[in-house]
Fold:
Amino acid sequence: MLHYRKIKTRNKCWVKMDNTDLQILQILQKKARVPNVEVARNIGMAPSAVLERIKKLETQGVIEGYEVRLNPGMFNCSMIAFIHIKVTTLDRLIEIAGLLSKIEQIQEVHYLAGKDCLLVKLRVSDNTELETILRTKIAALDGVKDTQTFIALSTYKESAKIKLPETFE
Structure:
């Protein structure tokens, strides 16, 4: 018996997924470059059926993309900083978040509840680059009221993976 679960995607669409879809997602999340034939072999399906399901999951927005994880040390951007950014008025928040998103070194932009501020994560080479970005690109934005910077000394886990259920029931 097939069990389906209706899932709401980021673009507000409801999609139906079953345990086979979930198995495919679990495999792809472990290794996105796994050949289609290997996924098919692992779940006992034809490669063409697996490919059709993957394309459906992409079209529905369940799979948003595939990324390569690079070694930041190889590209002189090992320093991670988190910056709380307070804005002058909340009606400017979305606009400022969009402008921050365009800064190449910024990897994430989040709106935090409670403090009514933005939190950004960025990667840079050193304190000098961090200071330059803070001064010329972040604090210089019209509507930025205040910033508070936290530098990560060590990183013990960094991942874009999400916890998937074992099965749908």
Notes: The domain at 4-59 is CATH 1.10.10.10 (Arc Repressor Mutant, subunit A). The chain has a mean pLDDT of 90. The radius of gyration is 20 Å.
